[in-house]
Amino acid sequence: MRDFGAGFGYLLQGQKWVGRHGRWFGFGLLPGLVTFVLYVGALVGLFYGADDLTAWATPFADDWGSPWQGVFRGTLTFLVFALGLFLAVITFTAVTLLVGQPFYESLSEEVDRSQGGDAPESGLPLWKDLWISARDSLRVLARVALYGVLLFAAGFIPVVGQTVVPAIGFCVSGFFLTEELTAVALQRRGVELKERLGLLRRRRMAALGFGVPLTLAFLVPFVAVLLMPGAVAGATLMARDLNGETAGDDEGDGGEGRAHRPAEGAASGA
Predict the structure, then answer these.
(1) Which candidate, 180, 187, 103, places its Cα nearest to that of 143?
(2) Rounded to 5 degrees, what are φ and ψ at 247?
(3) Burial 67-77 (b: 16+ CB within 10 A, else e)
(4) pLDDT level of residue 246 (50, 70, 90 thresholds)
(5) 72, 122 Cβ separation under 8 angstroms
(6) What's the average model confidence in pLDDT over 14-42?
(7) Got the DSSP string for 191-253?
(8) Widest CA span in the chain
(9) What is the C-alpha to C-alpha distance for residues 196 and 200, in angstroms, rounded to an integer?
(10) Which residue has the higher pLDDT, 176 or 157?
């Protein structure tokens, strides 16, 4: 549980960092606002259309008597919307990071500089950075979609489907949300997706400590937009730890920065 607390600590540190650097907080809000409006429209459409979708997909239940038809289709409608919400939480970050790539890279570089030394740069043109980010996001989303289908099917299991399955779903969401956010800093360091996943698996509890609370917070409308700048900042601090780097003093914090403990096995996985 100590590593879980360390992951949550990075999330808090990131929010504090943008709180001390208000200009970067405002700068980081813009991509999230654009994506948020698009996602709200999509989820509202799903909310009002999910019952029609389930009725269309289950014509065999048209002749079922009450209350079985209502219970069956009501449960299925809930699961469809839950799956849509589950995917929205994951894809929101991916889409926002893609839309705001230049914004968040600049914010991440500034966090690196505030910890002492220069900010690593990929050395690639912007179009290639965008291509790599989009490609890796699709690979991550394919994994998430697979887990989503399995969890959706498991949701029909009595009791387990309403208790254990949602908890696993939040853990899956949190892990991959952490991957998406730390990718901003690790991609600049030339760390490929396979290596990034390896680093996070070695610090699985830290990844969950960072990502699960953020996933839960992202379920509240508009909170995702407000937390994104700090999430990117916190993920940059965490990426430094995963990559075995140390932190210097934050110039804007009066020299109260602390050194991050290098991740176990990070040197061999980077």
Answers:
(1) 180
(2) -105, 135
(3) eeeeeebeebb
(4) low
(5) no
(6) 89
(7) --HHHHHHHHHHTHHHHHHHHHHHHHHHTSTTHHHHHHHHHHHHHHHHHHHHTT------GGG
(8) 71
(9) 6
(10) 176
> What are all long-range contacts of 58-64, with beta carbons under 8 Å and residues at least 24 apart?
none
Overall average pLDDT of the 16-36 stretch: 89
Given a contact cutoff of 8 angstroms between Cβ atoms, the answer to whether 90 and 173 are in contact is yes
189 three-class SS: coil
- Residues 129-138: what's their mean pLDDT? 81
Packing angle between helix 193-202 and helix 160-188, nearest 10 degrees?
120
- Provide the residue count of the chain: 270
d(CA 111, CA 236): 7
Q: Which of 120, 139, 143 is nearest to 131 (CA)?
A: 139
Instruction: Tell me the two tokens of residue 151.
Output: 């969890």
Q: What pLDDT score was predicted for residue 17?
A: 94
